[in-house]
Design goal:
The chain has 436 residues and is mainly α. Helices cover 79% and strands 0% of the residues. Bound molecules: aspartic acid (ASP).
């Protein structure tokens, strides 16, 4: 992302901003948990009113400011990335590497999840009465979250729907894959123009990307308060009782996600990209904080692009190409979570999933992770699809929905770190020198 003249944030001012965001996150968590334990039992209405009138709106305004620029940002950076890559052969090579990375790392992530859930077997210890109570309590919420699942399927329409009938309508509905398809073709179109027209479109796309940077800068001024509001409203409303009941499941998922962050990506960076994983993870701090507090790969995209280009030295044409695709298609944490949840629920309901069925779960989790929207809770409707495809009752998601808010925050972190790992790897393979 090219920063507009005069609006380029220096690394140190960004550093203090990320410290303030971290402070917002920690304070939000401390105050939220404090309110949950001390105030909610005595003044539940007052805490709910504070959430409804203050903390939720502040958090939502911050989130919306980020979401607002996602479509112009994805369109401009992808089209610009493709147009700057120049020839189609190079585009094919970069695209091929990116897709291969997405598919292989996502499949590997599900496999890690499946090994963990089969070894630890968190579902077998869950008492039947706890299961029934959770099913009863969360039936309504689960049903409303499952509504959109009926619209998705694995038929040929999955492919056809990537090609938009109307790109503006797709953008208006937040359908990212068709928008990406259009942006890719648009970028290729720009490379086919005469030199004069090509330069004009490059300038226009750069200008559009620059404007999004300015708007993101405004949104980020709100970030410490927005993050406080988001985290406070989640923690003060959270049912810590359910956390206790599902602790083994939560620990299994968190263990898998940690293995991705501290094992898979570092090893990939060291051995496939030849860069220092420690330096990489240190520079990832603002990305991790934003992903954790927003639970959204899309809302984190501006930060992901900024950090990759400014701090890691990934060239704009690679970052602009890989990262918007990654925020939409590459969800390693989500895929791992889907794999674990599917087998966990099978264990809870006493359903045996054969090896063949579990291999099928890998395929389904990879496909659904690609289709998952990078928004809070985006994977739940598609998780339903995975469950029903292997004969696990879909209403089973009621069992885990109470802890999903927490796991959503956690799985979004590897979702975005995986994208940046890919951008670093592709940039290295293309022969660029990086800052790590
Ligand atoms: N919240 C996740 C993301 O945006 C998607 C999900 O797993 O629900 O990356």
């Amino acid at each position: 992302m090219t920063s507009p003249d005069g609006a380029t944030p220096s690394a140190s001012s960004e550093g203090s901003l990320s410290n303030r965001i971290l402070l917002g996150l920690l304070l939000g968590a401390i105050c939220g948990v404090g309110a949950n334990l001390l105030l909610v039992p005595r003044f539940p209405d007052a805490v709910e009113a504070a959430n409804r009138w203050l903390f939720v709106p502040v958090g939502q305004i911050f989130l919306r400011m980020l979401f607002m620029v996602v479509i112009p940002l994805v369109f401009s950076s992808l089209a610009l990335g493709v147009a700057s890559l120049g020839d189609l052969k190079r585009l094919g090579r970069v695209g091929g590497r990116t897709m291969l990375y997405f598919l292989s790392v996502t499949a590997f992530s599900v496999a890690i999840g499946l090994v963990l859930v089969n070894v630890l077997r968190p579902g077998e210890g869950l008492p039947a009465e706890t299961r029934e109570k959770l099913l009863e309590t969360y039936r309504g919420e689960a049903a409303s979250r499952m509504e959109s699942a009926g619209k998705a399927d694995f038929g040929p329409s999955l492919l056809v729907n990537i090609v938009p009938r109307n790109p503006v309508a797709a953008a208006a509905n937040g359908e990212m894959l068709p928008v990406i398809f259009f942006a890719l073709l648009f970028g290729i179109g720009v490379t086919k123009l005469s030199a004069e027209k090509n330069a004009l479109w490059m300038k226009l796309l750069e200008g559009l990307a620059d404007v999004t940077v300015v708007i993101i800068g405004m949104a980020l001024k709100l970030a410490p308060f927005g993050v406080f509001g988001l985290i406070f409203s989640v923690t003060s409303r959270f049912g810590f009782d359910i956390l206790r009941q599902l602790l083994f499941f939560v620990v299994t998922v968190l263990l898998g996600l940690s293995l991705l962050i501290l094992g898979v990506y570092p090893l990939y960076l060291k051995f496939r990209a030849g860069v220092s994983p420690v330096a990489f993870l240190r520079k990832m701090r603002p990305v991790m904080i934003t992903a954790f507090s927003t639970s959204s790969s899309n809302a984190t995209l501006p930060t992901t692009i900024e950090v990759s280009e400014r701090d890691l030295g990934v060239p704009p044409q690679i970052a602009g190409f890989v990262l918007p695709l990654g925020a939409t298609m590459n969800m390693n944490g989500t895929a791992l979570f889907e794999g674990i949840t599917c087998v966990f629920l099978a264990q809870v309901f006493g359903i045996h999933l054969s090896l063949g069925q579990q291999l099928f779960v890998i395929v389904l989790a990879v496909l659904t992770a690609i289709g998952t929207a990078g928004v809070p809770g985006g994977s739940i409707p598609l998780l339903v699809l995975v469950l029903t495809s292997v004969g696990v009752p879909a209403e089973g998601i009621a069992v885990i929905i109470g802890v999903d808010r927490l796991l959503d925050m956690a799985r979004t972190v590897p979702n975005v770190i995986g994208d940046v790992t890919c951008a670093v790897y592709v940039a290295k393979k293309e022969g660029f020198e990086l800052k790590i």
